[in-house]
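Lesson 9: reading folded outputs for more than one chain in a single document. The general rule is that every protein is listed as its sequence immediately followed by its structure tokens, and records are never interleaved. Here is the first one.
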Amino acid sequence: MGIIILVIYVSSFKIFLKTFVISGWCVAFFIGAGYYYIQSQTTTPAEIENESVPYYDYIPESKGVMFNFGTRCVYTYLDFENSSITVMINPQETESKGYKADFVVNADYNLIAKMVDYFEGINLEIEGETLRYTGGQVVDLLSTNNDSSLRQSIVLSVLSKIKEQGVGVDFFNMIIINSKTNLKMPDCYFWKDKIDKIASNVNFLNN
């Protein structure tokens, strides 16, 4: 009787062991398959590049800015659409020429000095000699010389620096905090991205 019970016990244990091993392999298989599926789903989107989405090149709205320095003024029309800047030195009026001052900047020569020093000086040709001038030196020239050609040379030199080096948001912020103006940072924030390009095409209009 004991032998029969032992045989039954051994047989049952073999069945249990076989079932356990098969179940273990099934569990391992399904876990592995599930892990592989999850990994494939999470990595696939990162590898897909959507080349059909076009790059949007934002172009700021063209604006006119009038700089008033006491009795002297400089008008600049920033034409972002046609990639150019139109400049008038001491204009008597602008609207008759088809331009308007969207923004007015009232400041003293200290602002000019800061604009020049932003580029660590500008090059000016004075009496046939080209020299590098700091902001303070440019102000001294303006204080003793009323020649509009000098002002045109200064404007052209500053714009040349903008074309070569570009400017950041800090350049426009410097203008705003050193003047009385209706120009706000949201108005000119995106100018930095295009102003170097339009500064390569400068047109001066005479009164």
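And here is the second record, again sequence then tokens.
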Amino acid sequence: MEIIERQRRFFAGNTPGERLVFVWGADPQPDAPAVEQLPPQVNAYYLANDGQLPDHAALEAMVRKTVADCRRYWRWRDELVDDDLPHIVAVHFDIGIQTAVMTGIEPRLEGSWWLDCNLTWDRIDALPATPDNRWFEMFRSLNQLLWEAWDGDFHFLPFWHRSPLDAANGIRGNELFLEMYTAPDRVKALTDWCVDCELAIENSLAQTIQAPDDWGVGHMGFVMPPGGVWVNGDPVALISREMMLEFEQPYTGRLFTSTGGGFFHNHTKGLYQVDQVAKTPGICLQHFNADPNCPRVSDILAGPPAARDNLLAASRQTPIFPDQILYDELDAYRPHLNQGRFALDITCPADKIDSVINEFKP
């Protein structure tokens, strides 16, 4: 509970210098208990059973195994590392399944789950706003079974969303980006429908909740408020700042303010949007995944003052989570940590773990 309270204080605060710290060893740890996560088990079942999804009984066996594996792993890690990582069971499926839940159209499994709907506007207009398909039922079962296995000792994310604009792209296809100019009202109507559909998903899954009202949900190392959501916001790295304000922010903001708040996933290719994303209504955290051949957050901090100051100001409005920070990058962070609010996900040599925690954990 101490870690959960530290996280709650971090998200409730607004003082520069506040931070969370997660530290990982760079080398394999052969003594770490293995964890068989839920998504790979579902994928293996699907492939072994000619495209059938696991029924409730099969999912129950998977949940029991994953939760037991996780509990062994947590006991092992808690004895070795004193950072801010809470106990979370990962329920993290690929974006093809998110679109399948929203549309009822079958995705394909090719290493990852993909679904390129490319629906016509006539078919889009006929989509029901309330999901009722086998993909949604799988998530309903997973939620029920995870709460049955819960013993006050872990968090999980009920459903992994695409941002409304990303969801609209998944349904309409890449033509959507041209139609922002040629048919903007159509694009806005579809993006608004995506918010309605995502809220229907959240409301339906909420009926399975058995935890205390203040327990919250967890994903990627964070305990979010009750009813919090996570969104894949990749399109903000593909559009202008002006188009982001028109076609993305209002809709993601409606999703976040209609739930318990939101965790926004982005890529460092989209760092030019950092200040605007930070102003999204209801946002709790802005995540940056490092892209190849693109500046990293550390490059911005070590670079020209204008871009650095813009990023630090954005972090004071909404905390920034750069993942997989390398040990060699820490010099870029050190001079600026007290000017912003960060969650630091640091990978370092095993013999440096304790010293990194002692230095960076407030």
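What the second record shows: The longest strand covers residues 19-25.
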